[in-house]
Amino acid sequence: MLARENARFRSFPLAVQKSLARHLHLREVKGGSEIRMQGKSRNIYFPITAIASQHAIIGNGRGAFTQFLGSNKTIGFAFESPQYSIKLEGRWCCSGYAFEISVQRFREFLAPGQETLFEKFFANIDVRRLTNRLYCAEHHCTKQRLARVLLEALDVNQNDDLTGATHQKLADLLSIRRETVSTIIGRWQERGILQATREKLIITNRGELERAVCSCYEETVKIDFDVDRYMSSLSWQLEKPRLVRTDVHQTPAHAPA
Ligand SMILES: [Zn+2]
C-alpha cells in the first residue's frame, strides 16, 4: 500500500488504512498550483513526494506562511468551522505525488460526534501557528528564520534534497528580499552546510542549521506533536460489510421444531 509512505496515514489503525485505501486516488501535482482549502466538495490529501505550503490570511489580506505539509501530514483535514477558523490558503510548492480523497468520503469513516471538538482543536492550532510566526518575524533575524524554514521543509520531506526550493520562493515565504536569501545561502554553502543548485538545495549538515535556528522551531515541533497525538486519538467507524442474508435458509437454533 503506497499510501503508507505518508506517515500520518501510516499512524491510523490498520483496519482504517485498509478501508480508506479503497477510496484514495494517486495524483501528480504541479508546484505553484493552488489547493482548494474551503468548501464541502474539496479534497483531503496525503502527500508522498509533493510538498504544500499553507498560509493564513491576515488583516491586510496578505497570506502569512504558517507551515509546510508533506509526507508526514494531511492537507485539508480541518472541516468547515466559520466561527473559529482562520482563513487558510494552500499551494503546492514542490511537484510530486499525493493521495487524494474527497472530504465527504473521509468524514464517513469518522465516528460521529467528534467534529465540534476538532473544529476547536484545529482553530486553536492555527492560531498558535500564526501568532508564533508573526512573533518570529518581529523578533528574530533573517538567518534564524531562514534556518527555521529549511528545517521545517526537511521535516516534511522524505530526504535531504529540497527540490524546487529556489531563493525567490524562500524569500517570498519569509517576505524578505531574494538577495538577502542568496547571501545567506552562499555563506552556508561555503561552510558546507548545504549545496545549492538552480532548482534545489541539498542539506548536508543539518546540525549546523539546528544551531542557527531560533527557539520558534521548537514551537513548530511541539505543535506538530500535539497534532500527531490528537490525530492518533480519533475514533473511527469502518465500512459495514455488505449485508448477506444468511437467515433465509437457516433455522435459528432456538426455533421450535
Ligand atoms: Zn523565531
Question: What do these coordinates show?
Answer:
The chain is an alpha+beta fold and 257 residues long. The chain has a domain at 1-114: Jelly Rolls, CATH 2.60.120.10. 39% of the residues lie in helices and 19% in strands. It contains nine helices and ten strands. The protein has helices at 7-10, 14-21, 103-108, 115-139, 142-155, 167-174, 178-190, 206-212, 216-231, and strands at residues 25-29, 34-35, 43-47, 51-57, 63-69, 88-94, 96-102, 161-163, 194-196, 200-203. Strands 2-6-4-5 form a four-stranded antiparallel beta sheet. A three-stranded antiparallel beta sheet has the order 1-7-3. Strands 8-10-9 form a three-stranded antiparallel beta sheet. Strand 4 (51-57) and strand 5 (63-69) form a beta hairpin. Helix 4 (115-139) packs antiparallel against helix 9, helix 5 (142-155) crosses helix 8 (206-212) and helix 6 (167-174) crosses helix 7 (178-190). The longest helix has 25 residues, at 115-139. The chain is globular. The chain starts with 6 loop residues before the first helix and ends in a 26-residue tail after the last helix. The protein binds zinc ion. Zinc ion binds next to loops.
Topology:
Blueprint: H1 7-10, H2 14-21, E1 25-29, E2 34-35, E3 43-47, E4 51-57, E5 63-69, E6 88-94, E7 96-102, H3 103-108, H4 115-139, H5 142-155, E8 161-163, H6 167-174, H7 178-190, E9 194-196, E10 200-203, H8 206-212, H9 216-231
Antiparallel strand pairs: 1-7, 2-6, 3-7, 4-5, 4-6, 8-10, 9-10
The chain binds zinc ion (ZN).
